[in-house]
User: Fold this.
Amino acid sequence: GADGIFRHTRARLSPAPTSIEGDGSRCVLVVRRRLKSGESLALTLDVTPGEGELGPFPEANLEAVAESHRRWISDAPRIAAGPADAIVRRAQEDLRALLFPTEDGLYPAAGIPWYVVPFGRDALIIAFQSLPFYPQVAQGVLRHLARHQAKEYDPWRDAAPGKILHELRTGETTRLGLTPHAPYYGSIDATPLFIALLAEYYRWTGDLALIQELESNLQAALGWAAGPGDPDGDGLLEYRRESSRGLDNQGWKDASDSMSHASGQLLAAPIALVEAQGYLYDAYTGAALLYRALGDTRTAQQLESKAQTLRQRFWQHFWSEELGLYALALDYAKQPALVASSNPGHCLWSGMASTQHARRMAERLFAPDLWSGWGIRTLSANAPRYNPMSYHNGSVWPHDNALIAWGLKRYGCDQAANSIVSTLLQAAQTTPDLRLPELFCGFTRLAGTPPVPYPAACVPQGWDAGAVLLFLRTLLGLEVDAAQRLITLRPALPPQLPQLTIEGLPLGSASVTISAWRAGEETRFEVTGDVAVQLARPLV
Assistant:
């Protein structure tokens, strides 16, 4: 390579090929073997990439790998989901396949084949989705992101003190300085999501030691939100690309054409993205919880006050009666982008929405221009930039829908939440491998036909393996407080999934079993374990 590093890819076929053919640009391994009737032949191809000098061909211990996967399933809470059992098992296996080790613990790759590197936003959301079942993933993600938290300004990498990375790559172009991914920090939402996940981790585990370990990182992240993340000091998070090789859009919809006004005109930066404000509200309320646990009541009260001030300002500047939704974003002149999209649904997940707005949104998100029949589209079919085959302007993303469903459940919109969960489980059942893909096209659902695949979607994809696990939490309406050994829930199962049991769910040092089942049109439940139980109330 141009960076002076020798890289190689080695392949070995067993049994050995009869001949090797090729012209220098390709290599064909040929096996000729006469088989009797009913006889079979198994071929094993080992492909191993590497760096540095060639040594002996590395021996893959496939049985050890298989055993680690079996332990991943057996050591986790036991899930019995009836008709969805195979979908849940596939999601668990995919999540395990995407995990790679770091010096800080396990870390999930975003997806195969494009994103097998550490991402900030993706890993934080995956860790949130899987937290009730695999808290060790959240622990690894939090520690690794804290290790790489920005400490200085670097416009080339869109870095600022306290900011959480977007993406870390170590390949040839990064080493040569041709790309800024060493790491790159162009994400408006990874930093508040880091704070929010730290708080959610504490709710589920009561692990105060990790909070104390990462307290300085928490402080730095809050400092970024109040400083570089809010350059004009109006209390809202805003982004603008600084790097010549960075991202124009720095939310989860990071395609260059994903931020537009109702006219179709693209937004000019700096941009205040709708869901990022919700994540910041969640970060403030979560950080307040953490500081109370650390014994700093004064800081907790200050953060709670900031959260309420942000919430009121957000309602004032983002709500649109005409849309029945929050605006997609505010542009450089603080003008709202009044185009219907899925983004505002994340403000249900974060708790930013008012009760009145949440009820309106629960209806609006299922209007025909947004609801495809296979899920909520990323952009309204009435918008000028709508394209059902686009990446972010009309497609359907399962993880996006899963977060919205959890938000709807939190606000008491059980039927709407169940519609999303049931529909996406049906979508998984239409695939040969029972997987949800990264995304699929936003064409209107037709009877007897599956969702239209998006050709370049990652399969498997971390967000979507995590989405299946989040569905289970959504159906149960499950919230916890490990420090108080308290579970709150409000189960509501759809007809397609009449029974759900999770056995051995970790809650701090406790272990609980939750069973729910349909009895007529009602859902009944039972919780066993050394915990207190109460019915969840909708957010207000």
